[in-house]
Write a structure and sequence with these properties.
Order of helices and strands of chain B: EEEEEHEHEEEE
CATH topology of chain A: Chemotaxis protein chec
Helix content of chain A: 40-55%
Largest interface: A-B, 35 and 34 residues
CATH class of chain A: Alpha Beta
Order of helices and strands of chain A: HEEEEHHEEHEEH
Number of helices of chain B: 2
Distance between the termini of chain A: 7 Å
CATH superfamily of chain A: CheC-like
CATH architecture of chain B: 2-Layer Sandwich
Largest sheet of chain B: 5 strands, mixed
Strand order of the largest sheet of chain B: 1-3-8-9-10
Radius of gyration of chain B: 15 Å
Strand content of chain A: 25-35%
Structural class of chain A: alpha+beta
Strand content of chain B: 25-35%
Oligomer: heterodimer
Number of strands of chain B: 10
CATH topology of chain B: 60s Ribosomal Protein L30, Chain: A
Chain lengths: ~210, ~160
């Protein structure tokens, strides 16, 4: 077996990874739905191979302000994970959690940023624990980090990480939505070596 | 009528007055401009990583500081910039997430900025202004008619360096 590179990830692996995204995000979405007592839907995840330098446009306009929650993932699977929300959705979640009724144009204060981090933590934690129990791999997330900034600036962080290994980035992306519009994305970005581990642990011979 | 030329990530281009050259949402990347105030010719490179020699797959020269800045210099001179008059300005190199420890995520911005300075020094080009580091993204524009470098960030006034 040769060393697997991102370019070798073919359509069958795509399906497996998509299913992983589905299970992870499904778990995460029910965690938020429980926390907030509301219905949240998600779309079928998409797996995209794109140029790392185009990541800035992955979820919308490059200069749109969004909320990015970022976690590093370590142990058996190395990589990072992001949960991205547009501002009205983030504001909605925070208001719901903190029982306030601030409008979307009000900037987040410290307390609210901390609440968003916690939302990110719960979401990422449930996403990763679903992956972990499916694959029997140990997956440990770091504490969450948050940034409210332009999409391109936030996504430059994973772009650079992928850029160190090649020109492409593989995204497992799931969109969520709710009765009131919550637009968010999960992006899981395992490092190259971790694909092999994920696929092998699921009994797929490479 | 002036045009706006857009430079993507891991990309570079040149620009002449009265046009404007811009890149959106610099995070930990660096946006470096070279500008000749007499012929009003300039250019911008938006690179992601400092050093092409540390990476195996390094075919895109605009992706790296060491190769990208040199290529930009070549292109700006070819477009009518005089090497002795060129000045440089840089922006970006932010630390978007307050990641603890010495992981790559935390310090890549600072390494990118350091590479810009090292390469400019080696090439003998003056760095006249910079706005780097900290923890926020920047959209930058070089106005070739004046040489002004506009820096726009979320929730902050426009800065001109």
């Amino acid at each position: 077996m040769g060393k697997m590179t991102l370019e070798d990830v073919n359509s069958m692996y795509f399906d497996v990874l998509k299913e992983l995204g589905n299970i992870g995000a499904g778990n995460a979405v029910s965690a938020i739905a429980n926390m907030l007592g509301m219905m949240i839907d998600m779309n079928v995840p998409s797996i995209r191979m794109m140029e790392a330098s185009k990541l800035g446009t992955a979820v919308g306009a490059e200069d749109e302000t969004i909320v990015g929650i970022f976690l590093e993932v370590c142990d058996d699977i190395e990589g990072s994970m992001m949960f991205l929300l547009d501002i009205p959705s983030a504001r909605y979640l925070v208001n719901k959690l903190m029982m306030s009724d601030a409008t979307a144009d009000k900037p987040f204060d410290e307390m609210e940023l901390s609440a968003l981090k916690e939302i990110g933590n719960i979401i990422a934690g449930s996403y990763l624990s679903a992956l972990s129990s499916l694959t029997n791999l140990v997956i440990a997330p770091s504490v969450p980090y948050i940034a409210v900034d332009m999409a391109a600036s936030i996504l430059s962080v994973p772009a650079i990480q992928f850029g160190q290994f090649g020109d492409n980035a593989l995204l497992i992306q799931t969109e969520i939505c709710a009765e009131v519009a919550i637009n968010g994305y999960f992006i899981l970005m395992p490092e190259q070596d971790s694909y092999e581990k994920i696929l092998t642990s699921l009994g797929i011979s490479l | 009528m002036s045009q706006v030329i857009k430079v993507g990530m891991a990309d570079l281009n040149i620009c002449k007055a009265p046009d404007v050259i811009t890149t959106l949402g610099l995070g930990s990347c660096i946006g470096l401009v070279l500008y000749d105030p007499v012929t009003k010719v300039g250019g911008m490179v938006h690179y992601m990583l400092p050093d092409s020699k540390q990476v195996r797959n390094n075919s895109n020269i605009a992706k790296f500081g060491d190769t990208g800045i040199r290529e930009l210099l070549k292109r700006v001179i070819a477009a009518g910039g005089n090497r002795n008059r060129l000045i440089a300005k840089i922006a970006g190199g932010a630390r978007m997430f307050e990641v603890s420890g010495l992981s790559d995520v935390g310090n890549i911005g600072a390494r990118n900025a350091a590479m810009a300075k090292a390469v400019l020094k080696e090439l003998g080009i003056r760095l006249v202004a910079e706005d780097t580091g900290l923890n926020y993204g920047r959209t930058v524009e070089l106005h070739c008619d004046t040489g002004e470098f506009y820096i726009k960030s979320v929730g902050k006034p426009v800065k001109i360096i």
